[in-house]
């Protein structure tokens, strides 16, 4: 497979007067790392434009530079022919640009009306709470969002939070709306509703710039597709109708044959993946046994209610559930962040119900958290500290001292093995892209010493090649007799990787299925219309 030529800015078609957004020679650097380099591109008005690429390709940095959140080292941004001051988010918003980020911005302790009013206040110095709530109630009703203006942000499901973020962005009447990985936090039915909402927004004349990872989503939603690779533009806006999944996958990954094969495989629809014969011995002691587990009530998540399940060595058990039905409570209970109000937890036959998280980790527990930024890394600590914290907590037998030099070398080896794109192991973790932060977590957690892996949304926000690599790594760990608890909103992922699937509904086990899995049966169980399991 030949390598695609990377065009220079001069090779990009000239910007037309009718462009909604035009970028000229945009370059963004973080130290010695060029996140975006010499990008020139123009987007037509009133269309949905997808910007795609692997993790670290520069997609989010490009979007943030357009929004004025990042000051470029060179280049300019024009909105409808007007040059915007670089790195000035206030000016960008005033000109008609707004952005919905991966990490939601609405304050969790505010009510819906308070949060929206904070960003888009009504004109005039004085208002009443009742007037404010009535105003936003009308906006929510017109947008088709079933949420009370008096509800607390922290109590709302993920799909509603994202819909509110879009309402917040649109309230200022932007001509350009940017969305960064909006599908990463949504289950499949919610993605369909999001796409319908974006199509309706496009129909009003708003230009949409959307960062996406999945080939199928890109080709389903976008009018045009642009590809970034290693910070450079390799495909200017091209009609999605002119691209095949294989062609787009190759453009994204370039000459990496392994990644290209993964991209093409991801592009093919997975209807019913067959996991094959069990990989575990039926009489083996379970790596994880949860018996009658219950937890205290939580604000936005159903507590566990008498949950029992087992994972044997060499087995992947998937957890399928609509957001808020107890999957977070289960993960927190297993890793030791929450205490059971009733029931028992065992790892390899040892009672760990009251054990601290560190003791569970000593027994081989490893975890990929739901929120990589707040739960998975210390954003202000260096990469080497984030990667090697486990060695500081669990020194090797007979080793009393560790040196920073040795830890830096260990971190470099681990980061490189997971293809993390970084400048120096001394840089802060918060400087990495979201996908590279996820890879950092994998480099720390998915080692040969893992006995029980709790993987919560492990491929959320990852590119095609990284997604394939993670899934293959989980299967490799299973084949080495580790037990895997896989929590994912991606049913394709659950069907492809799992030996069994347990459905949670309202914090209780609603159904259990064995491969081959039925999409209709699993989907029905997730919403309470349970079909018989297999």
Secondary-structure blueprint:
Blueprint: E1 21-30, E2 33-43, E3 48-52, H1 59-67, E4 74-79, E5 82-83, H2 89-95, E6 97-100, H3 112-119, H4 129-142, H5 158-170, E7 176-180, H6 188-203, E8 207-211, H7 215-221, E9 224-229, E10 232-239, H8 245-253, H9 257-267, E11 288-294, E12 307-311, E13 315-320, H10 327-335, E14 342-347, E15 350-351, H11 357-362, E16 365-368, H12 372-376, H13 383-393, H14 404-417, H15 434-445, E17 452-456, H16 464-479, E18 483-487, H17 491-497, E19 500-505, E20 508-514, H18 519-526
Parallel strand pairs: 3-8, 3-9, 6-7, 7-8, 13-18, 13-19, 16-17, 17-18
Antiparallel strand pairs: 1-2, 1-4, 4-5, 9-10, 11-12, 11-14, 14-15, 19-20
Structural overview:
- The protein has 534 residues and is an alpha/beta fold.
- The protein folds into three domains: 9-96 and 174-267, P-loop containing nucleotide triphosphate hydrolases (Rossmann fold), CATH 3.40.50.300; 270-364 and 450-534, Rossmann fold; 372-448, no CATH class.
- The chain is 34% helix and 22% strand.
- The protein has helices spanning 59-67, 89-95, 112-119, 129-142, 158-170, 188-203, 215-221, 245-253, 257-267, 327-335, 357-362, 372-376, 383-393, 404-417, 434-445, 464-479, 491-497, 519-526, and strands spanning 21-30, 33-43, 48-52, 74-79, 82-83, 97-100, 176-180, 207-211, 224-229, 232-239, 288-294, 307-311, 315-320, 342-347, 350-351, 365-368, 452-456, 483-487, 500-505, 508-514.
- The strands form four sheets. The chain has a six-stranded mixed beta sheet with strand order 6-7-8-3-9-10, with helices on both faces. A six-stranded mixed beta sheet has the order 16-17-18-13-19-20, with helices on both faces.
- The radius of gyration is 24 Å and the shape is globular.
- Mean pLDDT is 84; it is low at 1-17, 257-261 and 263-277.
